[in-house]
Amino acid sequence: MGAGARRVTRALHDGTRLARIFHRLALLAALLLLAFAAPTAAQGDYVGDEVCAGCHAELVQAYATTVHGRALRPGNALGERAARGCEACHGPGREHLRGAGRGDAAAPDWIPFGGSDVAEVHRENEACRDCHAGSTQRLWPGSPHDAQDVGCVRCHEVMRPVSPRHLLSRKDQTTLCSECHPLPRAQQLRNRHMPTRPGVAGAGGEGFMDCGSCHDPHGTIADALISANTVNESCYACHAEKRGPFLWEHSPVAESCLNCHEPHGSIRPGMLKLPGSRLCQTCHIESLHPSQNRSAGDRFVVGQNCGHCHSRIHGSNHPSGSFLTR
Amino acid sequence: MSERSGSRGRKRARRTWIRAGRAGLLAVCLLPFVSVPDARTEEEGATAPASDATSLRSLLDPIVLRGEIELGGRASQGDDGKGKLLEYRVFDDGIFGRVDVVAEDAEGRFYLRSTALDPGYDDARYAIEAGRYGRYKLTLSWAELPHVYSSSARTLYQRPSPEVFRLPAGVQTRIAGAASPSTQLATELLAARPVDLGFRWLEGAAGAEYRVDEHVRLFGRYHLRDRHGSQARAIQFGSPGGTFDVFAGSVDDDTHRVEAGIEYASGPLVLGLEYQGSFYENDLRAFTVDNPLVALDAANAASRGRLSADPDNSAHTVSAFGSVALPVSFPARLTGSLAYGLRLQDDAFLPHTINQAIASPTLGASGLDGMVHTLLANVTGTARPHPRVSLRARYRVYRFDDATDPLRFPNWVRNDDAARTDAFRSVRSRYTRQNGTISGDVRILPALKARLAYVVEAWHRSDDRQAQDLVEHGPTLDLVWNAHPRATFEAAYRFEDRVGDRYRTLAFFASKLDEADFTALRSSGIAELPGLRKFDQADRRLHRFDLRARLAPRDRLDLVVDGGVQQVAWVDSDYGLTDQRAWHVGLDGFHQLHPRVGLGVWYRFEQVEYDQTSRWRSRPFVPPIVLVDDRRNDWQSRNESRFHSLGANVVVVAIVDRLELELGYQLHRGVEEMGSGAIRGFVGTGGVGVGADQGVGFDYPDVEEMLHVATATATLRVDEALKLVARYRFEAFEIRDYRTDDLGFYLGGSDVYLGNVVEDYDAHVLVLSAVLDF
C-alpha cells in the first residue's frame, strides 16, 4: 500500500484529524459562499435614466444611440443589472444625487469613470468586467495593460461614437495605440509593410489591417499580446501556405517567423530583419558555394539573393528538395 | 494524386458565387432604405409580445435610419500606374462612395448596420451586421485588397497554363546552339513582354453570436481568404551556385477558417470551450519552367525544371479556458487555459525529376502523411492583497511535436539535372518552450510605483538542433514617478541572460545523413564552420533601457518624450551574429492653440545595428575536393539602418459648426548601410584557395527611401444633414536600392531576372464628396 494511501487510512481512523479536516472544508465552503455573494445596492438607490437626463441631457442623448445605450435597457438587456441603463455602469444614482463625487468614501458604489487614481481605475474596470468578463476580455486580469493600470475608458469611449468600430476613444487603432506605443506607427511608413496605414479606403488610406489584426490589448496567452496561441499561428491566419508540415523543414521558420521578419515594417524586401544574403549568413557558413563578400552587382546580392536558388525557404514538399531549391 | 483539375472547376464555380455574393452584399447594404408598408393591425403592433418573427417584420416598418452616406468623385494625377503607390490601394478616377447606415426598429431593439467603403473598386469593403442589441447578432463581411508588387517586370516566359512557364519556340535551341549562349540569351530577352506582379486578396466572413442568457454566449464564424495573381519566384538549374531564372509565378489558393465555441461568464467564474479549424487549399501543385540554356534533356542537364508549390494543409485547435476569483478577502484570480492543436498535410509527392533523360527514383512513399501536435497550457495568478501591492505569477508551456515519420530518400535528383545516391532523411523537429514570470507592483510612495519581475524562459529542442537546452532569465524593473500632476516619468530596465548546453554545430547533419555519410562529412570539414553559432540558439545577453516623460506644461498642451536603447551580445559566437544595438527617441505633442485650432506633431528616430562575422570558405566542385578553411579569409559586416519619421497635423475650426480644415504632413526617411571588411586584412592573390576575393571586405552602396505624404481636408457643413468634403492627398516616394535599381532582366551571365523594381512615384489625389448625415 503506498505512503499516500497509508496516510488516508490513518486519518480515517483518527477521529480528531477527521473532524479537523471537515472543519477546514466547511470554512472553505463558507469563504467561497462569501466570495460569490456580493453586496448589492438597495432597490431604492436606483433612480432611472430619466433622472440622469434631467442634468445630463446632451450626454444621454448622444449615449442613447450607442451600442451600450441600446443594449443596456429593459427589453434588450440580459440580467437585472444590465437593464438599469446609466446605472448599470455608474452604479446607483441616488448617491450621486446626494452630492457624491469621485472617490467619495460615503458612496462606494458610485462610479463616475475617468478617474486617475489607481484604485479608481481598477474599480471602474471591474464595473466593465461585470458584463465583459468573457470573450476577448477574459484574460484581462494580470495582462500587461492591467498591470500598467490602464483603464477601460482610457481606450474606449462608451458615451459617444468616435471610431467606426470597437468604441475606441480615438478615430482609429493606430492613432490610439501609438499614444503609448509610438514606434510601430513610424515603422509602418517603411517601404515594406502590411496594409495597416490608417485612413479612408479610396482616399489614400490602406486600413485593411490594424493593430487588432494581430494583437489583442485585453490580454492573451502569447507574448506581446499576440492574439493567437503563438506568433506563428497568428501569421498563419493570413499566410497558411507557410504552415506545413513540409517534407523538408527549415527549423527556425517553424519556431518563429520573427527569427527573420519584422512585422511592423522594414526597409528590406520580404520585411526581413537584415538584408537577404546577410540574414542567411548569420546561420550558414557552408562551403557548397562559398558565402562571401561580393561586388555591388553580384548575383548573390541583388534581387532575391539567396532566394533565387533556395526559393522554397519556408519549407519544401518536393522529394528532391532537401536544399529547398525544389 | 490530388484532384487539382477538379478543384479548378470548383474554383471557377466558387468565384462565380463570390461575384454574385458581392453584388448581393452591396444590394443588402441598401436594404435599410427599403420601406415596406406596415401590414400589421393596430392590435398586433400595440399588444403583441416582441417575438422575433413579428419583431423582424417590425424591423422593416417603421424604420429608424441613422448614419452617413458619402458620395462623390475621385480624380488622380501622376504616377498612378506605379506599383508602390497602388500596393494596397486603388485610385481609379470615378465615383467615390462610403456608406455607414444603421436601421433600427422604433423601439431600438433590432438593428441592421451596413457599411461600404469604396464600393465597386478592387479595394472595396462591405459589412453587414444585424441582430438584437445585447442578445444576438449576425455578421457578413467582404473585403478586397490589391497587393501589387511591381509594375515594371518583364518576362520572356509564356504561360499556357497557371503551372507551366514555357519559352517561345526556338529560344532554347538558339541559345544552346550559340557560340556564346549568354550573348544569345541577352538577344532573346529583348522580346520580353511586360507582366504585372501582384495578386488580389479577397476575404469573406460570416459570423453569429448568441447570448443564451446573461452568462452564456455561443459563437461561430466562417472566414474565407482567396488569393489569385502572380508573384516573383525563382528556380535554379545546375550545380550549387548555378544559373537561376526568376519568373512570374502564379498564385491561386484559398484558406478557409471555422471557429465555434461556447462561453460561460458569471461574476467570479469564466469558462470557455472553442474549436478553430483552418484549411489551406492550393490550386497549384508545381511550376514547370523551361531552362533557357538547355534545349534537350540529358543526364547532366535539364531542359526544364519543376518547382513544388505549397501543399494543402489543415490545422485544428481545441481550446478550453477557465478563470475563477479566489475565495480570499482581497481581489485575486486564477486563470488557466489548455489548447491542443493538430496540423496535417498529405499532398501526393511530385516525382523526383521532370528530366526525361534521368530515371526518376522510386518515391518510397506517396506522400508525407504529415502530422504535428501542439499543446499549450497556461496558468496565471493575480492578486491585490493591499491597495498598494499587486502580485502576478504566470506559467506557460508550449510543446511542438512533429510526429511525422521521417522518410529516407536513398536516391534523388539535384535540380533536375544530376542523379544522386547520397541518402537524406527528412528531419522532424520537436521543441518545448516554457515561460515563467513572477512580478510585484508596489506603490512605495503615493507618487512612486515600482514593479519588479523575474522572467524565465526554457527551451528543450530535439537532437537535430544545435543547442538542445537553453535557459534565458533575468529581472525587469519599472519605476513610475508621478512627480507632479502635470509630469509623470517612467523608467524601465530589462536584463536577460541566455545560456545553453553544449552546442553541436553538426547536429542537423547527424539527423539528416546516414551514419557513414555523416562521418565522412564531418571528416571532410565541408559542412558548417565549427565556430558558427546560430543566433536563435546561441548564448546571449540582453540589456534594454527605456525612458518616458509625460508632460502637460500648461493647459491644453501635452507632450510625451521617450527613448530607449537595447544591446544584445551573442557572447560565445565567434561566427554568426555577434552584436545588436538599437536605440530610438521620439516626441509626441498636442497643443490646443486656440479653442478652434489644434496642433499635433510627432517625431521618431530609430537606429538598429547588427554585427556579424563570417568566413569565405573555398573549395573546388570537381575532385579532388579540398576545402580551404583559412582564418585569414574571415570577414565582418555591420548592417546599420537609420529611420527618421515625423508627422504633423493641424485642425482648424474656421467657422464654428460650419467649416473645418485639417492639414497633415508625414515624412519618412530610411537609410540602410551594409558595410563589410576583412578582419585580418588579408587580401588574397589567388595563392590560397580559389577565387579572387577571399577575405576582402566590400562596402555596399546605401539603400535610401523617402516618403512624403501631405493631406488636406475641408469639411463644409451646409446644414444639419448635409456636409461637403474635399480631400486632397499628395504622395511622393523615392528609393535608391542598388540591388534592384539597375536590375534589368539580364545582368550578363546566364541568369534571368524579371527586372521588377520598386519605382519612385508621386501622385495627387482629389476626392470631392457630399455626406448625408441622418
Total strand segments of chain B: 36
Q: Which pair of chains has the greatest number of interface residues, and how are they split between the two chains?
A: A-B, 123 and 205 residues
Q: What's the shape of chain A?
A: elongated
First-residue to last-residue Cα separation of chain A: 61 Å
Oligomeric category: heterodimer
- The helix/strand class of chain B is mainly beta
* Helix vs. strand class of chain A: mainly alpha
Q: Compute the gyration radius of chain B: what is it? A: 32 Å
Q: Describe the sheet with the most strands of chain A.
A: none
Beta-strand percent range of chain B: over 45%
Low-confidence runs of at least 5 consecutive residues of chain A: 11-15, 29-39
Percentage of residues in strands of chain A: under 5%
> What distance separates the N and C termini of chain B?
58 Å
Number of contiguous helices of chain B: 7
Low-confidence stretches of chain B: 1-5, 32-59, 684-693
- Computed over alpha carbons, the radius of gyration of chain A is 29 Å
SSE sequence of chain A, one letter per element: HHHHHHHHHHHHHHH
Can you describe what's shown?
- The complex is a heterodimer of chains A (326) and B (774).
- With 326 residues, chain A is mainly α.
- Among the domains of chain A are: 50-106, no CATH class; 141-225, no CATH class; 234-308, no CATH class.
- In chain A, 34% of the residues lie in helices and 0% in strands.
- Chain A is built from 15 helices and no strands.
- In chain A, α3 (49-55) crosses α4.
- With 774 residues, chain B is mainly β.
- Chain B is 9% helix and 56% strand.
- Chain B contains seven helices and 36 strands.
- Chain B has a 26-stranded antiparallel beta barrel. A four-stranded mixed sheet of chain B has the order 7-8-14-15, with no helix packed on it. Chain B has a two-stranded antiparallel sheet with strand order 6-9.
- In chain B, β10 and β11 (216-237) form a beta hairpin.
- The longest helix of chain B has 26 residues, at 4-29.
- Chains A and B meet through α2, α5, α8, α12 and α14 of A and β2, β3, β5, β11 and β12 of B.
